[in-house]
Write a structure and sequence with these properties.
The complex is a heterodimer. Chain A has helices spanning 2-17, 20-27, 33-58, 60-81, 86-109. Chain A is mainly alpha-helical. In chain A, α1 packs antiparallel against α3, α1 (2-17) crosses α4 (60-81) and α3 (33-58) packs antiparallel against α4. The longest helix of chain A is centred in the middle third of the chain and has 26 residues, at 33-58. Chain A starts with a helix and ends with a helix. By secondary structure, chain B is α+β, with helices and mostly antiparallel strands. In chain B, α1 packs across α5 (141-163) and α2 (37-44) packs across α4 (125-134). Chain B starts with a helix and ends in a 33-residue tail after the last helix. The chains are: A mainly alpha, B alpha+beta. Chain A binds chain B through residues 1, 12, 15-16, 19, 22, 24-30, 32, 61-62, 65-66, 68-73, 75-76, 78-80, 82-84, 86-87, 90, and chain B through 169, 171-176, 189-190, 193-194, 196-197, 292-294, 330, 335-336, 339-340, 343-344, 346-347, 350, 517-518, 520-525, 527, 529-531, 533.
Chain lengths: 110, 533
């Protein structure tokens, strides 16, 4: 569930940053078209991978339920953190993305 | 044309949301609590000891106890302890007179010694679970009303999606400290971000009560006898008649081992022995609900009670039943481990909060006009009173239930009923209080009292029992500690909410902070300098 959670959260953060208003609010400068495309790609790819991570860990029935649960939890966490601690919200996503390969290797080995 | 439709949907969403909002808030809150029903029951019956789990030994002890105390019973029910419910429960049905149902007797046993546990009488989590769909009304009215509420919730969800113009554009938007805007943002964010849960929980509740929602197909084939429909669906529930000649019941423990093999490590949740001590004895093993998502009532392994051999396995194959069972299982969440269970709980809180924010918004929007005079017309005052009593009042009632559990004497025969009475009496008192006090003061006082009561739950537990946090945490009794700690967190939240009502007294909240914007965190506020990137 951890890998799915990290990927979901990072994915939503990337998708959030791919929107002009959020990008300039959070990072203080304007979003370029190339970066927008890259963020969208990273976002959707992470969400897709998170589905794989959830199902691979627990099978289709419980894995799918868990995936939905972390999907909703990560979106709610992100949205309600952004106005209060935007820096932490972004740092969490970056950290999650960075350690997700390690968690993925661990999930594949165990 | 499209705007007309959207407006009609907005009207629908607004008014059914108001009419059923109070009831739905209570259903969602108590339903959310029911994800921890076993833990709440454990808290309210702390006398039941926490033992290492050993289902083989438990079954043996239960059989010994029942053979000694209920040898003449027509049926035995054995519920095995698991990591959420520590008691070994045994129940038996005495043979009834012809044409009558025999009476049931239920006892709780210590799963290590097999001795009866003298636990205080309390419904515990069962009360909140029952309330969330029966609403403390006589059968079938409560179920009817909650099913109607579920239908309304479904309509409110769909109409809510339709009238939300910027689902994707404002997907990540929450702007705090902006009065009405913030309430709407919060309502929308909770609605949209947890939408899969909302749709699942609402639709599944309609599936669970489908024989009440859409009875026509059953009524045309079975007439008024809906039980016959369920007997056909789940034939394992129909047991063979007793032969009348005595025979010794085979030991149950080896059958349990066979069941474990048959299910490849799956756990047994409960077992039923039909006609124990009779030549026609049979034993049914039912799988633990935590093993699978799909809820499969009445399916299990059937053993011959005299020879101890496995006779048949009944399983669900019909696709509609598996689908219905999936929705049932998803709604109840029996399969959820601790982490997923907490996520279920948080989703439930999100749903409850969505309903609450909707109710608050309805009133805020309409009372703006009266902000100058500060006097609400009768219909708005009524909504305000009901808002206060249904939200903060319900919190007080819930806390009172827990207080009553610790304060009513353990030997008091009617205590279980009185816990429930205390719940409803305190709820009633909060309604009266909301009637006589001005709106903001009523909110503040009720939230404040609720906060004190919830913070007091771990305190009263530590003072009146031997199971306070200083004992439960070192012991690793996380169900007990979890209820205490969650109460503490709820108390702190209510206290925070009570303090919030002091902010902006006398000012229309919408005027506060309207010009504030989220500051960029990069620390360099001049966007033009970065356009080259």
């Amino acid at each position: 569930m951890l890998l799915a959670l990290l990927l979901c959260y990072a994915g939503f953060t990337a998708l959030c940053l791919s929107m002009h208003r959020h990008y300039s609010d959070l990072l203080g400068h304007k979003l370029t078209p190339g970066r927008r495309l890259a963020l969208k790609a990273v976002g959707w790819l992470s969400l897709g991978l998170s589905l794989w991570a959830g199902v691979a860990a627990r099978g289709w029935d419980i894995g799918l339920v868990e995936w939905f649960a972390v999907l909703m939890a990560s979106a709610v966490t992100l949205v309600f953190m952004l106005p209060y601690t935007p820096r932490l919200a972004l740092v969490l996503a970056a950290t999650g993305l960075l350690i997700s390969p390690v968690v993925a290797v661990r999930q594949l080995l165990v | 044309m499209k705007e007309g439709f959207r407006q009609a949907m907005a009207w629908l969403h607004t008014w059914i949301g108001l009419l059923f909002g109070w009831l739905l808030f209570a259903i969602f809150l108590t339903g959310t609590m029911s994800y921890f029903d076993a833990e709440i029951s454990h808290w309210s019956q702390p006398e039941i000891p926490l033992r290492p789990l050993d289902s083989g030994a438990s079954v043996e002890l239960a059989q010994g106890y029942l053979q000694q105390h209920a040898n003449a019973a027509s049926r035995w029910f054995i519920g095995l302890p698991d990591e959420r419910a520590p008691a070994l429960s045994v129940m038996w049905q005495n043979p009834g007179k012809p044409g009558e149902r025999g009476t049931f007797v239920r006892k709780l046993l210590d799963p290590q010694t097999g001795a009866e546990v003298q636990a205080r009488k309390s419904l515990g989590g069962e009360f909140f679970y029952r309330f969330h769909f029966q609403l403390q009304m006589p059968y079938p009215w409560g179920r009817w009303l909650s099913t109607a509420a579920a239908m309304v919730m479904f309509v409110a969800l769909i109409s809510g999606i339709i009238i939300h113009k910027k689902i994707f554009k404002e997907f990540f938007t929450f702007r705090p400290r902006k009065g009405q805007r913030s309430w709407l943002d919060g309502h929308n964010a909770l609605g949209v971000l947890i939408l899969p849960f909302h749709l699942m929980i609402t639709y599944s509740s309609l599936v669970i009560f489908m024989s009440m929602v859409m009875p026509v197909s059953i009524l045309t084939s079975y007439g008024k006898d809906t039980q016959a429909f369920f007997n056909d669906l789940f034939p394992a529930a129909n047991a063979a008649k007793a032969a009348g000649s005595p025979a010794t019941l085979a030991p149950l423990r080896p059958m349990l081992a066979v069941a474990g093999e048959q299910w490849q490590g799956g756990r047994v949740g409960r077992l039923v022995v039909n006609n124990p001590g009779d030549a026609n004895a049979s034993v049914s093993f039912y799988r633990h609900g935590g093993d699978r998502v799909v809820h499969t009532p009445g399916t299990g392994l059937l053993f011959n009670g005299v020879t101890g051999e496995l006779e048949s396995e009944s399983a669900l194959h019909a696709a509609p039943l598996v689908i219905a069972g999936s929705f049932y299982g998803l709604h109840m969440g029996h399969f959820a481990g601790p982490l997923l269970r907490w996520l279920y709980f948080l989703c439930g809180i999100g749903g409850t909060a969505m309903i609450g924010t909707g109710l608050v918004m309805w009133l805020k929007k309409r009372s703006l006009k009266h902000a100058q005079t500060g006097v609400l017309p009768f219909e708005l005052k009524l909504v305000q009173v009901l808002n206060i009593a249904s939200m903060s009042g319900l919190m007080i009632a819930v806390a009172s239930f827990f207080w009553a559990n610790r304060l009513l004497s353990t030997g008091f025969a009617e205590r279980s009923g009185w816990e429930v009475n205390v719940f409803f009496i305190s709820w009633g008192v909060t309604l009266l209080h909301a009637l006589v006090r001005p709106g903001r003061s009523a909110w503040r006082e009720q939230l404040g009292l609720g906060s004190l009561l919830f913070v007091g739950i771990p305190v009263i537990n530590a003072l009146t029992s031997d199971y306070g946090l200083t004992v439960s945490i070192p012991q690793g009794d996380w169900a007990m500690a979890g209820v205490d700690l969650t109460s503490l967190a709820v108390g702190v939240f209510l206290g925070w909410a009570a303090l919030k009502t002091f902010v902006g007294v006398g000012l229309p909240a919408i005027a506060v902070g309207q010009t504030k914007r989220v500051k960029p965190i990069a620390g360099k506020p001049a966007p033009t300098a970065h356009e080259v990137h």
